Task: structure prediction
Amino acid sequence: MRWAAGFIRRWPRSAAAVCFGCVGTAVTGAWFLPSVLSRRDAVAFVLYMAAPGAAAALAGALAGAPLCDPSRPGGPGRAALRGAAVATLALLIFAPVFATLFAWTTPGRTTVVGMTVLVLTFSAVAVWWFAAAVGAVLGWMLRRIASRPDPS
Result:
């Protein structure tokens, strides 16, 4: 655990990106992996596995670095709130990416703007609460690990 705390403190932006990206991929993988594997389709893999993970990693890199800085003020509650905000940002990044990839791979079915609105609406109703809860737990964990005393 000491090496993790050192990594998180030394490269906070990279650590947040890796953590949020891995968890984002794992959560969507748990949900969509059986469907993706049964289709054996690279487009489905990119749409339902790679794009959510990449959006979560980007959101973690953009807004998650303060979670890894133990010198910043704020306790576990603030860290959980920031983690939920990072997860929300990931959903906001994912929606237009998904819509663009979907419109590109199935032309004529929908517009990018219409699909973005559809994905954001579905996300807000069906999965935002879960994504925010997972992000809150991850934010709290990152802060807790980064706050461990340095062994040296």
